[in-house]
Every structure is written in C-alpha cells, then in structure tokens.
Design a protein that fits this description.
The chain has 8 helices and 7 strands; from the N terminus they run H-E-H-E-H-E-E-E-H-E-E-H-H-H-H. It has helices at 3-19, 28-32, 50-54, 86-94, 111-128, 131-148, 152-159, 165-189, and strands at 25-27, 43-48, 60-64, 68-73, 76-82, 96-101, 104-109. A hairpin with a 3-residue loop joins strand 3 (60-64) and strand 4 (68-73).
C-alpha cells in the first residue's frame, strides 16, 4: 500500500473507532514504534472485545478463533487480540497509556504491556516452529528491555497467571538469555 494512502486509511480507521466510542488498545508493531525506532509492520494490531467487531461493519472479518480475529479495513489488515483472553483483557485494563499517533491520541499498550504480550506468545511460536516471528518477538523484547529497562520480575510474576509451568520456565529462560545479550552489548559499548 502507498505510504500516504496507508497513513490516511489508518487515520480514518482510528477516527471511526473514536466516533463509535469503541474501546481498544493499540499493540503490535505500530505500538512498538511509539517506544523504539526501526520496527517495520504491515498491519494494525489491537486489543478489543469481540462485541466491538459487530459495531464495525466496515471491517471484513477473515478469520476468528477464541483469542484472535483477522480483519480487513479497505486494504489495511487489522489483527484483533480479543479481550476474552484473560491476559489480553488484563493488558487492556492495566498496561495502557495514551500516545499521539496520526494526529490523534490513541490508547496504546505500555512498554510492560507489549513485553507481556510478546513473552506470552513466544512458547506458542516455538511450538509452531515459526522461527521468523520468534526472532522478531525476541528482538522486540530485547529492544524494549535495553532502551526502557523495565523491572523484569513483576512481568514474569504476572505471566504465572497466564502460562502453564512449562511455558513459564521457557519464558524465564528466554528472558535470562535476552538479559545476557544486553549485558554483552553494554560491555561491548564500553
């Protein structure tokens, strides 16, 4: 999509959400761009209730499962993380701030909220063998840790409510490896 048309479509989409008073939270690559530079994305990712989808007939629903809905708004892909998932709902309630985007104030996940979502997804991505997305998500987490230095233990504690023991151990190991990479990087800069 032409970048100018993309920005115009995104602005129109967010205006529509505001007009309809639809609760949502921006997550994913565009939300990440609010905190770090250089992340490319091809879609918009939101947390939203499934009932909100019904109030957006302009969006064409392509796929729906228990946790996700894939949609199109014109040529713009809109992936929705559904609030029926307890972690997605928690991020939308407790890990949200307002950020300026396309000349509007947009509810956006915080650094901690984005990290929670990325870490939560990683065990499933490993099981799927999706190496490309694993690399992107781990890099996103590493970049957020390195730039913003959030407190790690409360995030890992939060994830105990949403991951089984095996997945939580895997996420803890991933975080430890990311922290080691950051320490190597910091030593290399010195």
């Amino acid at each position: 999509m032409n970048p100018d048309i993309l920005i115009e479509t995104v602005a129109r989409f967010f205006s529509l959400l505001r007009e309809r008073q639809i609760d949502y939270v921006l997550v994913g690559g565009i939300a990440l761009l609010q905190y770090v530079e250089g992340r490319n994305t091809e879609d918009i990712d939101l947390i939203m209730a499934v009932s909100a989808l019904e109030r957006l007939p302009e969006m064409h629903l392509e796929n729906l499962d228990a946790d996700f809905a894939r949609n199109k708004f014109g040529d713009l892909r809109v992936d929705v993380l559904l609030t029926s998932n307890p972690l997605f709902d928690e991020v939308s309630k407790r890990y949200t701030t307002s950020r300026r985007f396309v000349e509007q104030e947009i509810p956006c996940a915080t650094v901690e909220g984005l990290i929670l979502l990325k870490l939560y997804a990683l065990p499933s991505l490993y099981r799927q063998g999706n190496f490309t997305r694993v690399g992107l998500y781990e890099n996103d987490v590493a970049t957020l840790f390195q730039i913003h230095n959030p407190s790690v233990h409360p995030l890992l504690d939060e994830l105990t409510n949403y991951l089984d023991d095996r997945d939580h151990r895997q996420v803890t190991q991933i975080v430890e490896e990311i922290q080691q990479r950051i320490r190597r990087f910091e030593r290399g800069k010195a």
